Amino acid sequence: MAVADAPRSPPIPLRGSRVPGLGEQSAARGDGVKGAAPRDGARSAARRGGAGAERLRRTFIECDLDGDGYLSREDFKVAVLSLCGYKPSKTETDHLMASVKEKNLPGMPFDEFRRAVSTRLASVDFDDETRRIFTAFDTCCRGFLTVEDFRKAFSLVAPHLSGQTILETFRETDRDLDGRVSYRDFETAMAARRGCR
């Protein structure tokens, strides 16, 4: 079944509406939607629904307000907000819509949308995982980690590691060598680890 032939949900009103996947989060279009992501709600919603093709297709159809099988620039922003929990910046939107412009299409077709959003969903999941792990290490809620935090965490999850290995790991993660691992330090180390997979 083609996207245009698929059963449609009622169109999403422009102001104060519910965005598919965000529950009660408001979806004011345009300048009313700020770039800050609703931290837990949107990401949890994205995780609950998964990044499956059916969910992407359903969101595409719900956000294709005129039903022509293409997402306008504004429709695309609402769809990304719905799935990823953040409104894409003008630069990001320009970049993602560039191929649409080059092909002289009236908007973004489903296949382009699926490619664009799938990579963002993977990134959102990785960011969420990194934040959860950092929070688990930061048992004192200080916003940074000490070598003692590393020792406690590793003793629970990898008790076989030597104290020397834990200390070396801490030193490698503490990029500015101030004796504290900030979230940014931790995020950088996790991203490097992710690149090795």
From TrEMBL:
CDD domains: EFh
Compositional bias per record (Low complexity), positions renumbered to this chain: 35-48
Molecular function as annotated in GO: calcium ion binding
All residue ranges annotated as the EF-hand domain in the record: 51-86, 125-160, 161-196
Region (Disordered): 1-50
Record keywords, A-Z: Calcium, Repeat
InterPro entries xrefs: Centrin_CML-like (IPR050145), EF-hand-dom_pair (IPR011992), EF_Hand_1_Ca_BS (IPR018247), EF_hand_dom (IPR002048)
SUPFAM superfamilies: EF-hand
Pfam families reported in the protein's UniProt record: EF-hand_5, EF-hand_7
Matching PROSITE patterns: EF_HAND_1, EF_HAND_2
Keyword Repeat on entry: yes
Superkingdom of the organism of origin: Eukaryota
Record protein name field: EF-hand calcium-binding domain-containing protein 11
Organism: Petromyzon marinus
Name of the coding gene: EFCAB11
